[in-house]
Design brief:
- The complex is a heterotrimer of chains A (532), B (90) and C (589).
- Chain A is an alpha/beta fold and 532 residues long.
- Helix content of chain A is 32%, strand content 24%.
- In chain A, the strands form 4 sheets. Chain A has an 8-stranded mixed β-sheet, with helices on both faces. An 8-stranded mixed β-sheet of chain A has the order 7-6-5-3-4-8-9-19, with helices on both faces.
- In chain A, helix 2 crosses helix 3.
- The longest helix of chain A has 21 residues.
- By secondary structure, chain B is an all-alpha fold.
- Chain B has one domain: Orthogonal Bundle (Non-ribosomal Peptide Synthetase Peptidyl Carrier Protein, Chain A), CATH 1.10.1200.
- In chain B, 51% of the residues lie in helices and 0% in strands.
- The longest helix of chain B is centred in the first third of the chain and has 16 residues.
- In chain C, the strands form 3 sheets. A 4-stranded antiparallel β-sheet of chain C has the order 2-3-7-6, with helices on one face. In chain C, strands 1-4-5 form a 3-stranded mixed β-sheet, covered by helices on one side.
- In chain C, a hairpin with a 2-residue loop joins strand 8 and strand 9.
- In chain C, helix 8 packs across helix 16.
- Classes of the chains: A alpha/beta (532), B mainly alpha (90), C alpha+beta (589).
- Chains A and C meet through strand 14, strand 15 and helix 13 of A and helix 3 and helix 4 of C.
Chain lengths: 532, 90, 589
């Protein structure tokens, strides 16, 4: 039996089931700082009811919007459910975005309430983004002027429930914003259910069993988290471990408390955890299923994790999707396969799998004519599905412009193989001539000793520019030549420290800003040379 | 084989046609075939139904599944069932 | 999740550290087992989900994709393919054809969850005569009481459930049988003994057993389909397996041919290698020809399921009749090539002997060749009329690059198709013209087949109705055999015509592929005159030109050295790195 479509009802539904799951947090919920790190179905359902009371008390009513801007935690989902209970729509947004951008998002939302922490409200006030007319702030920690603290709202009466229709906006999340201000992605109960359908199917391996212990370190503000939550309530595994900070210390503590059998996060966080799996592989010994979403995974990062597991048969699930669309396709990789790829020209996980049958259709079209291309030819990937978001809030024209008929432009470039599986070549905006920047990145990541990050930047008519982060010494000219002999021509590489790479709230490298930064640096250099 | 459309054709014509076919199959005179006897008693097995089906389709221009023949035990019943069928889009 | 490529999962079968090696397969076979690691890997991989339509939560959309995904199993161990799941497929298709919503979801969940379903149709005393089956069920107050025996049933002991074909009412007729889904954990009183195991000469690792029912009670609602609909359902459902199974078992002939090539190039004989003997090349090329014909016909049958399901009752019967014959003939040619050494089961080529034994046993538990031929007979007059009428050529039937949407199980019928999309390739003007201009040396063979078509059509017109019923005449059987041959020839021509510009097709790789395939299929034409036909049938071409064999042999070498498999779709066997560096574009299919 599946959860109800409306998020407002999920937590009550879960609490009434015979089998439920429980949560182990790396830190208490921001909305319940004194309630400890363990929650079960009943405590979460109670929290949602309370939170809806706070919002109601703050003046939030049916049809309003609520902005939730704070650090990453699973309570994003609880807050969204609380808003939905009163018939409002919450926009869950990570505070790890630029303050100016977040101010713009608030302006698009015109929310009745802003649920946040003092850290962000201080930032927002500093740039003149707060107070915001017609909006009241609920401060989860401490107290500030121009804001209502959580303490003041405790004990509020539960709000009357006033649900919105399945075809009305139910939740707003944001795209990761590698190019400019993030877009506000609007989903209804229907489109969210279409995106969740996949997780509710009893698929082999991927589905949580009753004994499974899941470790999740994703962005809980993004659409993926919503589908995941609904599905986990349905499958009721033994425990869900929430690693909200992504930090090694916090994750290590969680894993010491309970060994996970399923681990999910984004590729850049897996990469961040490489020292952990290197130092304490035994923490991952019981993992039978690794899953990554959001971004392209590189096998050299996956390998240490799969090799740390002692399970005889384990699967790496590479899921490809977008906030705007939900899951598009997914490809399972087996450990021997990942190990055998090492060092070869095929050392990548660009095979995304076949689009989920019955749920989504994908086409590869000519970038100019938009006509479908035959299997084997590279073009723009467009998709059609009931799960596509209904709007970009405040940017409806842009939303509409992103369609080819009924098909949504993913912005990804690739081709379909004989079996209908989609092979990712790159992002349309990042495209380099004569090759796939992502394939090249994967290959170099393995071949360059000590490399922790490789980004190939398109430079128009000039040769693509490799940007490397290395632990230890930069590669010698000879080593570089050897690593690139069978690759398309590239400019000489630039080496940068890892923390200097600008990132988004999902830890993706922001290529546009990286290019800007490099331009600034070279302009500075030129300036220095001139003045010398 | 002549082409006759079933919507023009009465149960009578069908019955006579079927009688002839069953007779040919059993290698007996058509006059000796009783339209109310069980087809299986007349020696018509379920295998031959498959052949008969194709013959009916091509003669009367209808789309017919062999199991229809299995479900109608006598020539009369089968003829009545066929007379009610619409012409196909062949 | 789109499953990982099984070629990757299993690895190189000659490498000691791979998951499924020839060595392990042979060792398990000696113990009458399947390789346990491989079985659990397949379950983990989600083998059962392959047999469940996507609309029910499984992976099955295009049947050709299903074949492609599972071929790696059959390339290594047909017994594993059969023992692990193809027999579950046989049960499942009946449910997809006729089951109601509840049983469809039940069975879907069971398969996706890794359960096996046995197919309980066969009784030794009645062989392929379904209507003679005696195992019966009678309805009582608690449900159906089953008494009787089913024999030579794969996995009957370890499967969690079985689909049973039982007599449920009246005189034995096509309406007297029903399908019941027996779940072992949900039965009432009575007993079912599944302890007996048959010891077969091939497929030794499969657990082929029997079940004896002693008044076993199952719920009254355990029907699959309407009461009395078992024959109708099975005849529809098995068209799917009759198409898919030959396409899969071709994988074994593919591997065997590659193995024989390896052997021939390495084995020293009187100071040179076996490969240097013209006769050895001839044998290998003959085997390749058998594979091409069998694969062209089988794959066309698979595509017909999606594109022209009205034709598949005959087409799949033809495929299931001819494919084993071609395959066994191909294996026989290869065993001659191996010489006496193929009995040496210990060395690296010992796996060949196991494949040989396995393939002979493939028809076990499924309709044997004679049954398939019998399926063709009743439809012959209708078929002949419609072939004579002509139709329109559909290239998608012969092209592996097309899209096949989810199968419409309800569209499968028991009649003759509106046209014959395979034979039509023999009649099509564009194809005839293409042969004339591109392969003029093969025109005589083409004309031979066109003449054969005319002869068979007129022969069928002379058949009397009483030759077509359950007392089939020898000449009706012979015409059925020749009709199957015509379908195979049509499939070869169509696959060549569409494959000439397909980089993954052998027909694009070498012009000699058509010659080899046509020469091989023409050997099906009997030169023995059959009483009553008058013209005695066409003469069989005498020998294969040696230069054709030599060129074809070199083409097979190039294909194998490039790390590609053999068949009508030469895709990469990806655990082998291609010997020449290929760019990203060239590696794409």
């Amino acid at each position: 039996m599946n959860p109800p479509k409306n998020i407002a009802l999920w937590f009550d539904w879960h609490a009434e089931r015979k089998r439920t799951t429980k949560l182990r947090l790396d830190r208490p919920f921001d909305i319940a700082p004194d309630a400890g790190r363990h929650h079960d179905a009943a405590s979460m359902a109670e929290l949602v009811r309370e939170a809806s009371g706070w919002l109601y008390q703050l003046g939030v009513r049916h049809g309003d919007r609520v902005a939730v801007i704070k650090n990453n935690h699973f309570d994003f989902i609880l807050l969204s459910a609380a808003a939905a209970r009163v018939g409002a729509v919450a926009a869950t947004i990570s505070a790890a975005n630029q303050t100016e951008h977040l101010a713009q998002l608030i302006d698009r939302l015109r929310p009745t309430a802003l649920v946040t922490t003092s850290e962000f409200l201080t930032r927002l006030t500093a740039i003149g983004g707060w107070p915001y007319t017609g909006c009241r702030a609920l401060l989860l920690d401490g107290s500030m002027a121009n804001a209502t603290s959580l303490d003041e709202l405790r004990g509020s009466a539960p709000a009357p429930v006033s649900l919105r229709g399945d075809d009305e906006p139910m939740m707003i999340t944001h795209s990761s914003g590698t190019t400019g201000v993030p877009k506000l992605v609007v989903h209804t109960a229907d489109t969210n259910r279409a995106a969740t359908r996949l997780e509710l199917l009893p698929m082999p391996v991927a589905v949580s069993g009753h004994k499974d212990v899941l470790l999740s370190s994703i962005s809980f503000a993004h659409s993926r988290a919503y589908a995941w939550a609904a599905a986990q309530f349905r499958w009721a595994p033994d425990e869900l471990m929430i690693a909200s900070t992504h930090q090694i210390g916090d994750v290590e503590r969680l894993m010491d408390e309970h060994r996970p059998s399923i681990v999910e996060t984004v590729p850049n966080i897996f990469q961040h955890w490489l020292p952990l799996v290197g130092r304490r592989p035994e923490l991952f010994a019981n993992v039978r299923y690794y899953m990554n979403t959001f971004d392209l995974m590189h096998p050299s990062i996956a390998r240490p994790f799969v090799n740390a597991s002692r399970r005889r048969l384990l699967v790496w699930g590479h899921s490809w999707g977008q906030s705007e669309v939900g899951p598009i396709a997914g490809q399972a990789y087996f450990r021997p396969q990942l190990n055998k790829m090492a060092g070869t020209r095929d050392d990548n996980m660009n095979n995304m799998g076949a689009p989920w049958p019955g749920m989504i259709k994908a086409q590869v079209v000519d970038p100019a004519t938009r006509k479908p291309l035959p299997k084997g030819e590279v073009g723009d990937i467009i998709v059609k599905s009931k799960s596509i978001c209904v709007d970009y809030l405040g940017e409806t024209d842009r939303h509409r412009a992103n369609f080819d008929g009924e098909f949504w432009r993913t912005g990804d470039v690739g081709y379909r193989d004989r079996l209908g599986r989609i092979h990712f070549v790159g992002r349309a905006v990042d495209a380099i001539p004569n090759g796939s920047e992502t394939e090249i990145e994967s290959v170099l990541l393995e071949r360059i000793a000590g490399a922790s990050e490789v980004i190939i930047l398109a430079q128009g008519d000039d040769l693509p520019l490799p940007v490397l982060c290395v632990d230890g010494a930069a590669p010698t000219d000879e080593a570089w030549r050897a690593a690139t002999t069978d690759l398309p021509p590239l400019s000489p590489p630039v080496v940068l420290p890892w923390d200097e790479l600008p990132r988004t709230s999902t830890w993706k490298v922001n290529r546009a800003r990286l290019k800007e930064r490099l331009r600034e640096r070279s302009a500075e250099t030129v300036g220095e040379e001139r003045s010398a | 084989m002549t082409d006759i459309r079933s919507d023009e054709v009465s149960g009578d014509t069908l019955r006579e046609w079927l009688r002839e076919r069953v007779a040919a199959y059993g290698d007996v005179p058509a006059g000796g075939v009783d339209v109310d006897a069980q087809l299986t008693d007349l020696g018509l097995d379920s295998v031959y139904a498959l052949t008969l089906c194709g013959d009916i389709e091509d003669t009367f221009g209808i789309d017919l599944d062999p199991s229809v023949i299995w479900d109608h035990g006598t020539i009369r019943e089968l003829a009545d069932a066929l007379a009610g069928m619409p012409a196909s889009n062949q | 999740m789109t499953p990982a490529d099984l070629e990757q999962v299993f690895g190189d079968p000659t490498a000691p550290d791979a998951l499924l090696t020839h060595h392990a397969i042979l060792a398990a076979d000696r113990r009458r087992e399947l390789v346990p690691d491989a079985e659990s890997a397949l379950t983990h991989w989600g083998f059962g989900a392959e047999f469940v339509p996507a609309s029910l939560g499984g992976r099955w959309v295009s049947s050709e994709d299903l074949v492609r995904r599972i071929l790696p199993v059959f390339r290594r161990d047909p017994a594993l393919g059969l023992g692990q799941g193809v027999t579950s497929l046989m049960a499942a298709v009946n449910v997809w054809v006729a089951g109601d919503e509840r049983v469809r979801h039940d069975v879907a969940a069971a398969l996706i969850g890794g359960e096996r379903i046995a197919t309980g149709f066969h009784e030794l005393a009645h062989g392929n005569d379904l209507l003679g089956n005696e195992c019966a069920a009678t309805l009582g107050p608690d449900g159906w009481t089953i008494t009787g025996r089913k024999e030579v049933i794969n996995n009957i002991d370890r499967a969690e459930s079985a689909l049973l074909f039982v007599h449920t009412g009246g005189e034995p007729s096509a309406r007297a049988f029903s399908l019941l889904h027996w779940r072992k954990d949900r039965t009432g009183s009575g007993a079912a003994d599944t302890g007996y195991r048959f010891e077969t000469a091939g497929m030794r690792g499969c657990q082929i057993g029997a079940v004896t029912f002693d008044r076993l009670v199952v719920g009254a609602d355990r029907f699959v389909g309407e009461p009395g609909a078992a024959v109708s359902t099975a005849l529809r459902a098995f068209q799917v397996t009759r198409a898919v199974l030959p396409a899969l078992t071709n994988g074994a002939l593919d591997s065997a041919t590659r193995l024989a090539l390896d052997y021939a190039r390495r084995r020293d004989l009187y100071g040179s290698t076996v490969w240097q003997l013209p006769h050895a090349r001839h044998l290998l090329v003959r085997a390749w020809g058998a594979l091409l014909v069998s694969d062209a016909l089988a794959r066309a049958g698979v595509r017909l399921l999606h594109r022209h399901p009205d034709e598949t009752f005959l087409a799949t019967a033809a495929a299931k009749y001819l494919a084993p014959a071609l395959m066994n003939a191909g294996m026989a040619d290869l065993s001659t090539l191996f010489g006496s050494s193929f009995y040496a089961v210990e060395d690296e080529y010992g796996i060949f002997e196991k494949w040989l034994r396995d393939l002979i046993v493939v028809p076990i538990g499924h309709a044997g060749s004679v049954a398939c031929l019998l399926s063709l007979v009743p439809g012959l007059p209708t078929w002949a009329r419609r072939v004579a009428r002509g139709g329109s050529y559909d290239g998608a039937v012969f092209d592996g690059r097309g899209e096949l949407g989810e199968l419409d199980f309800g569209a499968l019928g028991l009649g003759v198709g509106r046209q014959d999309s395979l034979v039509i390739a023999l009649q099509d003007k564009a194809i005839t013209e293409a042969v004339r201009s591109e392969q003029p040396a093969l025109v005589p063979i083409l004309e031979l087949w066109q003449g054969e078509l005319t002869a068979v059509l007129s022969g069928v017109r002379e058949l009397a109705p009483n030759e077509l019923g359950s007392d089939v005449s020898p000449r009706a059987m012979e015409l059925a055999r020749r009709a199957a041959g015509l379908m195979a020839a049509g499939a070869v021509l169509g696959t060549w015509f569409e494959g000439r510009d397909d980089p993954a097709s052998p027909f694009a790789a070498t012009g000699d592929a058509l010659a080899v395939a046509l020469l091989r299929v023409t050997e099906l034409l009997s030169h023995v005159p059959v009483a009553g036909l008058g013209d005695g049938g066409p003469e069989r071409p005498a020998t294969w030109p040696q230069e054709v064999c030599d060129r074809a042999a070199r083409a097979v070498e190039r294909t194998v050295d490039a790390g590609l498999c053999l068949g009508t779709e030469q895709g990469p066997i990806s655990w082998k790195r291609p010997s020449a560096f290929t760019t990203e574009r060239e590696q794409r299919d």
